[in-house]
Amino acid sequence: MDGRTTRQRLAVMRALADCEDFVSAQALHNLLVENGIRVGLTTVYRALRDLEASGGADVVRDDAGERLYRTRPADGHRHYLLCRACGRSRPVDSAIVEEWAGRIAASTGYAAMEHTVELTGICTTCQPSGEEGEPPCRLERAPDTQGRARNCVS
Amino acid sequence: MDGRTTRQRLAVMRALADCEDFVSAQALHNLLVENGIRVGLTTVYRALRDLEASGGADVVRDDAGERLYRTRPADGHRHYLLCRACGRSRPVDSAIVEEWAGRIAASTGYAAMEHTVELTGICTTCQPSGEEGEPPCRLERAPDTQGRARNCVS
DNA sequence: TATGGACATGGATTTCATTTTCATCTAGAT
DNA sequence: ATCTAGATGAAAATGAAATCCATGTCCATA
């Protein structure tokens, strides 16, 4: 499944595992470089793609369609609830959804069914007092490349 | 909700409704132009974005992250099962999933919950005899032979 | 009917994540 | 140590979507 074990691939896997939340390929690449690990952006993209293919990582897309990766926990969880404000994610129990998808597959005769389930919301920590006007902090692409510290603590 | 009612917006809405399946902004633009309706690509993008915002259309993303739009049926269905081979889509009953999402919101305290559910598979018509190798790839409603790669991604 | 300004259009330009290319390097089997 | 399929990465290409901005159009008001 995994290709050859190289310094770079190892580094990517470790960095991703340290994140515990969803990160973009570019963010991860930045992290690596900032930590003095020389890796090409291309390689990070490839490593993540392969990780996804081999089931070692889960992927979601943010509002901009950008791919965000997260190491798949040992228990095999695949579905997450993530906060649109801080970006933090937590696995959710999706057995019900799996069954539901299975039933649909059976009743329609569709083969090779795949499903994507994404839950987003504003976590309790990020909730202002009132409504959802403009949450405190946004995760997405910030004008400056600095403040992203929020994403990953390595 | 909707902006002003212009010739172009009407055309986009009509074309989308005629499709009955998910189409990309560009494919829709091609359709319109090929039918002699002069509309700018920019306008199609905007019309679709606005339609989505006002709940008049549902959106999914294909493997490439491209947005595909479909008119929202009158019954308010929001979730679909679509064939990865021919691109055809059918609404599915997702009440169970809605409930499930609601429960999760309640138990986690997350606010402003949103969910995305996407089901894909190979419909009975597109199923070869054996495995999922290279499905037949139906041409369906996209006239020219260009953008087809989109719909036929396996 | 005229008019002014808010809203809409669309071709061109820009952005930006991701992919491709290709010359070079390396893991790992023999 | 040698060999080679597989891996790397800088640069360039791709392509969807957003943005610009000059121009066009709707519509409430005078």
TrEMBL record, chains A, B:
InterPro entries: FUR (IPR002481), Fur_C (IPR043135), WH-like_DNA-bd_sf (IPR036388), WH_DNA-bd_sf (IPR036390). The keyword Cytoplasm applies. It is found in: Cytoplasm. Keywords: Cytoplasm, DNA-binding, Metal-binding, Repressor, Transcription, Transcription regulation, Zinc. Coiled coil: none annotated. Transmembrane segments: none annotated. Pfam families: FUR (PF01475). Residues 128-154 are annotated as: Disordered. It comes from the Bacteria. Belongs to the Fur family. PANTHER family: FERRIC UPTAKE REGULATION PROTEIN, ZINC UPTAKE REGULATION PROTEIN. Homodimer. This is Fur family transcriptional regulator.
